[in-house]
Structures are given as structure tokens and as C-alpha cells.
Amino acid sequence: MISGRDVSDDDPEFEALLEFLKDSRGFDFTGYKRSSLMRRVQRRMQQVGIEHYADYLDYLQLHQDEFTALFNTILINVTAFFRDADAWTHLREDALPALVAARKPSDPIRVWTAGCASGEEAYTAAIVLAELLGPDEFRERVKIYATDVDEESLTEARHASYTEAQLKSVPDDLRDRYFEPVAQRFVFRGDLRRSVIFGRNDLVQDAPISRVDLLLCRNTLMYFNAEMQSRVVQRFHFAMNDDGILFLGKAEMLLSHAELFQPLDLKRRFFRKLPRPAVLRIPGHPSGAVEPVADIGARGTLRGEGLHASPVATMLINRDGVLVFANQRADLMFGLSHRDIGRLFRDLEVSYRPVELRAYIDEVVLERRSTWVREVEMSRGPTESVYLDIQVAPMLGGDGDVLGVAFYMTDVTRYRKLQSELEVTNRQLEAAYGELQSTVEELETTNEELQSTVEELETTNEELQSTNEELETMNEELQSTNDELQTINDELRDRTQEVHDANSFLESILRSLDTSVVVVDHELAITAWNLRAEDLWGLRSDEVVGQHLLNLDIGLPVMQLQPMLRACLTGADEVPELTLEAVNRRGRAITVRISCSALAGSDGARTGAIVLIDEV
Fold first, then answer.
1. Res 349: pLDDT
2. Residue 40 region by backbone torsions, left for phi larger than 0, else alpha for psi between -120 and 50, else beta
3. Full-prediction pTM beyond 0.90?
4. How many angstroms separate the CA atoms of 2 and 46, rounded?
5. Distances (CA, A) of 134 to 130, 131, 139, 148, 385
6. In angstroms, rounded to a whole number, what is the distance separating the alpha carbons of residues 267 and 484?
7. What region does 211 belong to: left with phi over 0, alpha with psi -120 to 50, or beta?
8. What residues are paired with 212 via a beta bridge?
9. CA angle, corner 502, sides to 497 and 504, nearest 5?
10. What is the DSSP track for 492-521?
11. What is the pLDDT of residues 557-596, one digit of tens each?
12. pLDDT digits over 226-246, tens only?
């Protein structure tokens, strides 16, 4: 079994499998948590009976349809309408009204639901906004962009068709207003569905949706490791408007991104975007632009020495990608020397280790604003690691041109340790509080149950005394009842014999008739079918009783009987006979005359019809 293997998080066979998935299908899972990712892949390998990652890679190359099964296993598309109802209530009653009130009546409202799976959350957001704005204003102002990396889930979401079980969490009044029943399923309203746009988007690789007012990403970040989470959260920050709202799932927090998002309701996982800090420039320069090291020295030894001795590791590169400055802290941290000044930054080890920095250069130059890479882990030995917060900032000239890029690297190891200790303490405190609360509730419940038990015992004693007296009376009544039941049984036996004789007589009549007789109920379901009908059409009574007459596949054009049967069942004064061409069970063409009369119940109400078919 695969679960028995001793596989480390840096298994080279597993990493080769991830690289193959990235190169062949464009799915980059390298940022996912290794432990969770390995569990999901191993589960799929067990299903196909493969033990080693290298063998599974060969299996993927030979079986193209296996990619779909693997991705479905990894991505675990779990979603529901109004999942975590308390959070949706807060969104509907507090968060969204405040967001809408801050906008002009003509301003559009843009929503992005990332990791939408089969679309339930996107349509839930549509329902909430339609309730708040009204359907007409919703259609004019709202656009909901729902994205996922799973094409099968997106196809299902675009159909917007759900079973009754999938809609069990939708209140009945909302289901009646926003879903239309179609063939035992429920389809979201077409006029509102046009405002919900589904598309494929990889949160790690693809560009984010822009100018978003409300962003829903519920229990998706938990599948990424810390570095990828940081990158995705920064992309969310870039995608949202300044007062946008981020709605996360129960399993997610933003404890390490306090400079990007401010909690609105931490319990329900609502956060508001915080504006980014302004682009950092070197103080003292008239334009704020970076100058070569020689020019900085010329402007003053004090400023140059201050930068060089700064406890924050600092590196500056010019617009050509050349390293022009690195202070003492950067030299010690990354092993730089004066010989590295003047070299291309991309040729230095620090450009890609401990984290890939080259990709951020183009980003900050293009957007002209700084970005952060949080909690980057760097090893100092086999057992020691430090954590860095890296700020990548463009340096702008007086005319707005980008003169270069600055890297500021702050050691946050101590804060990381404190944060970890705080998280552990909080979890312990929450667990202890939960146990205490549970114990108190159990004690109160036990006291109430004991008091109730004592009262019930007293009452039971009195009831037992009364029950003994009632039992004596009941014994006498039961004896009398037994005598009455014996009499009733004798009467029932006589009635049963009479009914049997009547049924035998009726069956004898139907068998003796030389006319094909078919009896149907009010719903046109067949209740009687005589021997002549069996001989004429080739179907036995047990094959047709209970079947709809108009659904029979026989040589008679049964659909032409519908007007005559409707007239007979609705009480028409005259029911005309029909003469039709047909084919009997032997394949011979025949002509039949058909008549119909109403079947009346004991109260005179029409309960069905008797159809007589004669061969002419």
C-alpha cells in the first residue's frame, strides 16, 4: 500500500510528477501544501493500483483521461448554497448594504468568486445582491466573475441546474423566486444568469480580475503553502477597489497580512482592503530617484554611511538590471561583496534564492507601486532558519520615469516565532474554554435531568397504582372484545367468499365476450383486458394492467382514441364510435370499430371508461 511508504515532503519522484503536470497540462501545483497534495495524489494512485510516483507518471502519459480523474481528486470541489449561513446573513444585512451605500446609484458592482467549483457560491451571491438591489437594478449594475481551474466544474456551473438535495439549504421563498423547475431539477433564472460569468483562472499563474468590490475565496487558500498564499493574497489586494470586501472561508485567516487587509468581522472572516503604502524613494534627493553610489557619496558621507549601516538589508538595481548598491546587512545575509557591484542582478544567487525575486521586478516596474513578499524562509544551517519580509519598490524620478528597483529585506524571525507561539496559545485557550463551557453545560443539564427524574418517579408510582386497577377492568373488556371479534371474523369470511364469487362471475363474463374489452380508470390506466383483446393484439393481461392505454405499442393507433375517451370521461351527451385501420398480432391489416361508455361508481361518479373494439 502507498500509505506505508516513507515519503518525505521533498520526494524527487513526486516533484518530477508535479513538473510533468505543469509542463503538460498547465496546472501548477508546486505551491500547494506538500502533505495535503501527497495525500490526494496517493489516494488516486491507490484507486488505479499504482505504488510509486514514477510508475504513476508513466501511467498518466499512456492514459490521457486519467488527468481529469487526478485533478478532480486533488481539487476536491466541495461547495453548497448559503454555506455557513451565519456569514451570509452578515453579508446580506451588514456588509453589502454598507458597500452599496458608499457607491453612486449608477456605479457598477463587480464581484469575483475565486475557486467557484460548480457555481453554488456564485449564484448565492447573485441571490443576495438581487434581493438587496432588486432584479432590474441587479441586471444593470452587477457583474459576477466566477473562476476555477477545473473545466468540468465550470461546465456544470454554466448549466446552473441543481437537484432538490443541492438546494436544501436555500429557503423555499428564494428557491421559488430564483429557480425554475425543469425535469425534476431546478435551473437558476436565465435573466439573472447572464450577469454571472464563468471562466478558468489559476490563482497562482493567471492575472486577477480587476476593480473588484466583493471578493469571495472560501476555503481555497488553505490548499496553498505560505509563500503561495502570500502571493495570492497580494494579487487579491491588487484586484480589489480601495474599500473592497474580502470574504474568506472558516478555515482561513489573514494573520500575516495585516498591512493589506483589516478585519471587519474576524469570526465570520470578513476583511476590508487597506491602501498600499506609497512608493518608497530615497530621502534627501530632489526627485526621490536613486543615484549611482558615487553620486550618493558626493552628496554626503553621513547619508551614505547611514544606508550602508542600516539594519535592514538593502539592495538597489538600476533600470538595466545591474546591482548598484548593497549595504552591510545585505552583504552578510547573502554573501555579497564589492565585486558583485556592477554585475547583472539576474546572475547573482540572491536573485533566485531563497525566493525568486526576478519576477517581481517586472511587476513593480509595470504597476509603479511596491509589493511585499512575506515570511520568506532562508536556511542558515541544517537546523536554523530565518524569515524575511521583502519589499520590492520602484524608484521613480521627478518626471515619473522608473530609474530602478529597491529591495528592502527585514528579518522577522522573532515575530514569526512569537506569532507561532501566540497561535498555539490561542488554540490551547480556545480548546480549554470550549471544554469548560461544555462541562458547565453538561453539569447544568445533568442537574435538570436529575430533578426531572425524581418528579417522574413520584408520578410513576401513582400511575402504577392506577394502572393496576385499569388492567383488571381491561381484562374484562378484552374478553368481551374477543367475543365480538369472533363474530366479525365470521362475517368477514362470508363477505370474502361473496367478493370472490362476484370477481369470478365478472371474469367469466369478460372471457365469454367475443368483443375486445378494455377498461381504464380516470387516468387512462388499464384495469381490465379480456381474452379477446389478448388474442387480437398479442399482449397478456398481466403485461398491460397498470399501463397507460395511450402508451401501448400495438397495431392500433391508440392516440386517435384520446378525443373519444376525453368525451366519455367528461360526461358528453354523445360519444361517437370510431372506425380505424389496424394491424393484429399476426401482422394482418384489419378494420376495427371502437365504442366507449362511461364506467360509473356506486355514487354515480365517472371513475373510468369501457372501450369495446370489434373487428369489422
1. 86
2. alpha
3. no
4. 7
5. 5, 6, 9, 28, 55
6. 69
7. left
8. 240
9. 95
10. HHHHHHHHHHHHHHHHHHHHH-SSEEEEEE
11. 989 888 888 888 887 777 888 888 998 888 898 899 998 9
12. 778 888 888 899 889 988 999
**DSSP letters spanning 555-612:** SS-GGGGHHHHHHHHTT-S----EEEEEE-TTS-EEEEEEEEEEEE-TTS-EEEEEEE
Neighbours of 37 (CB within 10 A): 20
What pLDDT sits at residue 614? 87
Instruction: Identify the three-state secondary structure at position 127.
Output: helix
Peptide bond into 354 cis (omega under 30): yes
- What number of H helices and E strands is found in the chain? 20, 20
Q: Are 516 and 612 in contact (CB under 8 A)?
A: yes
The amino acid at residue 446 is: T
- Number of Cβ within 10 Å of residue 185's Cβ equals 16
**Closest by Cα among 494, 470, 583 to 536:** 583
The residues that bridge with 593 in the sheet, in sequence order, are 579, 614
Q: What is the mean pLDDT of each run of 10 residues along the chain (616 residues)?
A: 48 88 70 80 92 91 83 70 90 92 90 91 94 93 91 90 92 93 92 91 83 89 74 89 88 71 88 67 39 43 66 87 86 80 86 83 83 83 80 80 87 83 87 87 88 88 86 86 89 88 82 84 89 87 88 88 87 82 88 88 81 87
Residue written as grid cell 365478472: 506
Give, in order, the Cα–Cα distances in Å from 393 to each of 277, 281, 317, 365, 430: 10, 8, 11, 8, 40
**If DSSP states are collapsed to H, E and C, what string results for 21-45?**
HHHHHCCCCCCECHHHHHHHHHHHH
CB 36 within 8 A of CB 223: yes
User: CA–CA separation, 445 vs 452, rounded Å?
Assistant: 10
Q: Which pLDDT does position 150 carry in this prediction?
A: 83
- Grid cell at residue 198: 464563468
Q: Are the CB atoms for 202 and 238 separated by under 8 Å?
A: no
- 596 vs 24, 134, 140, 305, 508, CA distance in Å? 71, 55, 59, 112, 21
The pLDDT of residue 25: 64
Question: With contact defined as beta carbons under 8 Å apart, do 27 and 223 qualify?
Answer: no
Beta strand ranges found along 50-141 (DSSP E): 109-114
- What pLDDT sits at residue 64? 81
CA distances for 468 relative to 384, 473, 480, 575, angstroms: 82, 9, 19, 69
Would you state the cell numbers that stand for residue 498, as one nine-digit string? 361473496
Q: Cell 493574497 appears where?
A: 233
Give me the sign of the Cα torsion angle 19, 23, 29, 31. positive
